[in-house]
C-alpha cells in the first residue's frame, strides 16, 4: 500500500510487517521473506533515484550495500527518517558508513637478525 511520507507512516508500515497476518511467503523466518521485507522497507524509505544508486552500488560493493541498507532500516525502525531519502541523502549516508568501515593499512617491517660471527663489522 502507498503510504504518505510522514515519519509515522514508516512506523505504521513496519508495524504492519510485524503483524502475524502476513502471507507465508513474507514471513520473516524464510530467507525469501526476509529479503522481501527488506526490499519493501527500502522501497518505503528511498526515492527512485536513491534506490537506483543503491542497486548500482550492489553490483560493485555488495558488502557496503548491505551496511547501508542495514543503516537505513535501523534509522526507519527508530523513526529517524522524516521522509524518503533522496540520492544526495544516500550519498551522505554512504560516506558516513565508509568512514566507519574504513580499513587502516599499516605496514610493519619485521627484520630478522642473522646470527653472524663478525656482527661488529656490519656497522
TrEMBL record:
Key words, A-Z: Acetylation, Apoptosis, Phosphoprotein
Entry GO MF terms: DNA binding
Pfam families given in the database record: dsDNA_bind
Domain of life: Eukaryota
Family annotation (InterPro entries): PDCD5-like, PDCD5-like_sf
Gene3D superfamilies for this protein: PDCD5-like (1.10.8.140)
Entry GO terms, CC: cytosol; nucleus
GO process terms (BP): apoptotic process
UniProt-listed PANTHER family: PROGRAMMED CELL DEATH PROTEIN 5
Entry similarity comment: Belongs to the PDCD5 family.
Chain's role: May function in the process of apoptosis.
Protein name: Programmed cell death protein 5
Species, as recorded: Capra hircus
